[in-house]
Structures are given as structure tokens and as C-alpha cells.
Amino acid sequence: MTEDDISYYRQRAETELERAQHANRPEVVRPHFMLAEAYLQRIAELESPEKLERA
After folding, report:
1. What does the alpha-carbon distance between residue 5 and residue 30 come to, in Å, rounded to a whole number?
2. Closest Cα to residue 38, out of 15, 11, 13?
């Protein structure tokens, strides 16, 4: 994975958080937060020391 991949996931997480903040119904808010969390988890995995040592 490259820095471009991390930037992509970061932008997607930010977009999902914005969508969650603008949503009016809990059944719409929750999936956006879940997607944001998944993107942030992917970033954490990519930036983990174990992954950085392999690069």
C-alpha cells in the first residue's frame, strides 16, 4: 500500500463522518459511522509498525 492509499481511506472516512453529521435519521447515521470506522481501522492497519517495517 502507498501513501495514496492511506490518503484515499482518510478522505473516505472524512466524507462518511460528514454524511453522518448531516443525516437526520439514526438508521442513516449508523451506517455512515460504521463505514468511517472501517476506513479508519484500515488506515490504522496500514500505519501499524509491523506494516511499516515490511515496507
Report:
1. 25
2. 13
Q: Rounded to two decimals, what is the model's pTM?
A: 0.83
Q: Which domain holds residue 38?
A: 3-54
Per DSSP, helices labelled H in the chain are 3-22, 26-47, 49-54
Q: How confident is the model at residue 51 (pLDDT cuts 50, 70, 90)?
A: low
- The total number of structural domains in the chain stands at 1
Asked if 18 and 32 count as a contact pair (C-beta separation under 8 A), the reply is: no
Residue with cell 454524511: 19
